[in-house]
Design brief:
The protein is mainly β and 381 residues long. The protein contains two helices and 24 strands. It is elongated and about 95 Å long.
């Protein structure tokens, strides 16, 4: 990723501005300005209704030096790596226009240097900015400001602990009959890469609808360092599996299936469906879904409820041969009322008894020679 140091421009009602830079290295090194608000510094600020994530990792090296007031350059290793699984600058169905705002709150005493990367369908686009100590920065339409388009995931690297909020919303056009210039939005959590699923891990997306009133989208993103494969299974409300599909993901790749219940499972009147997301390989797999009102385009976020992997209990096996006729070929086994284990000897034509300490006793009395005893079961007495 190309990184740029420049002195941001300011206006009376804005805080710092910084140049978006693409990772291709071909963008001109100019400083047209990055518009964002710094709450608490006499400029406009807005709170986003989203999950606050406080990253507590510490930075061993000192903060990078600055050249000029507000200039930003992230030279030191990042102390914090957070991911927002969905951010958009993209038109959608029913004349919707999706945008995302990103909030970064620095409650510390040292300026936080921030590196942002948007992983969209056409590759990674990145830029750097900063948040002064005790201030909050709201980056409106963050994907568009970085220079990206479409939908994807955003990675936030910071050299100081920060709290991150994210909101994705439909921007109502000015000529709309209802809610002109308004927004209908949803919050997305900022998460750590370690919060993602690893191979064998699974989670559920509940409360999904696909009908004339609502539409549903399901997405996955790989925030790990290696390739991953994800299995998405779709279910009706009664637990009937409708279908499944596999999604291969390279590191940083984001993929969303639009209306999978309709297009992959033929569901057009379903209001209680759910999906199971399983990481078949890789790690750092995040899953998410949205349920969107078809009239207002108002979206609801559905986060992944993970399932703890089943770890088989360790079983200790001890073999005992002493006291057993060689070649007797034990077959069926059952627990007796005396606490010992009783078994049949197919070749030995006997019934055997072994205690939990390994003492073996064989019984032949009453058994017809050549009966080839195979099975045994505990009786009522």
């Amino acid at each position: 990723m190309t990184d740029l140091t420049c002195t941001p421009m300011t206006t009376p009602d804005e805080g710092a501005a910084i140049t978006p830079v693409r990772d291709t290295g071909t963008r001109p090194r100019t400083c047209p300005g990055w518009r964002h608000a710094l709450a608490g510094s006499g400029v406009r600020g807005r709170l986003l209704a989203a999950l606050l994530v406080l990253a507590t990792a510490s930075l061993a090296t000192s903060s990078p030096a600055r050249s000029g007031p507000g200039a930003t350059h992230l030279d030191a290793p990042a102390a914090v790596e957070l991911w927002v699984p969905v951010a958009s600058h993209n038109p959608g169905q029913h004349q919707s226009q999706w945008r995302s705002d990103l909030g970064i709150l620095n409650t510390g005493t040292v300026t936080a240097n921030i590196q942002l990367t948007f992983f969209g369908g056409s590759g990674a686009v990145g830029s750097t900015t900063y948040v002064p100590a005790g201030a909050q920065s709201i980056l409106t339409d963050v994907v568009g400001q970085i220079g990206g388009s479409g939908s994807g995931a955003v990675r936030i690297l910071s050299d100081q602990p920060v709290k991150v909020t994210a909101r994705t919303y439909n921007q109502v056009p000015p000529g709309a009959t209802c809610y002109a210039n308004g927004t209908q939005g949803q919050s997305y959590p900022a998460v750590l890469a370690t919060d993602g699923l690893s191979a064998g891990g699974a989670g559920y997306l509940a409360g999904l609808s696909e009908s004339a009133s609502y539409r549903c989208n399901i997405g996955v993103v790989n925030v790990g360092s290696s390739a991953a494969t994800v299995l998405v299974e779709l279910f009706r409300e009664d637990g009937t599996k409708l279908t499944d599909y596999s999604v291969p993901l390279t590191p940083g790749q984001w993929a969303q299936e639009t209306q999978p219940f309709r297009h992959k499972a033929g569901q057009t009147a379903m209001d209680r469906g759910y999906a199971r997301i399983t990481a078949q390989s890789g790690s750092g797999v995040l899953g998410f879904a949205s349920v969107v009102d078809n009239i207002t385009n108002d979206p609801t976020t559905v986060t992944l409820s993970t399932v703890a992997p089943v770890v088989p209990a360790e079983v200790a096996i001890t073999e005992h041969a002493a006291g057993m006729t060689p070649g007797s070929q034990p077959q069926g086994i059952t627990t007796g009322p005396d606490g010992a284990l009783w078994f049949a000897e197919w070749k030995g034509n006997r019934i055997g008894r072994i205690t939990t300490s390994g003492a073996v006793t064989e019984y032949a009395a009453g058994i017809t020679p050549g009966a080839t005893v195979e099975c045994i079961a505990a009786g009522p007495d």
